[in-house]
Amino acid sequence: xxxxxxxxxxxxxxxxxxxxxxxxxxxxxxxxxxxxxxxxxxxxxxxxxxxxxxxxxxxxxxxxxxxxxxxxxxxxxxxxxxxxxxxxxxxxxxxxx
Length: 97
Prior knowledge:
This protein is an alpha+beta fold and 97 residues long. The chain contains 4 helices and 6 strands. The chain has a single domain (3-87), classed as Alpha-Beta Plaits. Strand 4 and strand 5 (71-74) form a beta hairpin. It starts with a helix and ends with a helix.
């Protein structure tokens, strides 16, 4: 694995909804680099987790407004990837969560 794989996949999104998606539909959710495209995300997931990726969907998420004292500030925008893997394959990283 090269450093580009780590630069594309920032972190997995582990929520109640993502856990349900993983169990029922074989979908994994990641926060990815905003400049990464679907092909790069697919290659990074296949290299890193050694699974077959069937589909990649991406969403550009707008940052929320947060209050800091009397002022409001905007959190940064980010990109979410929903990766569908082949049925029967498991990702060991998510198994302990």
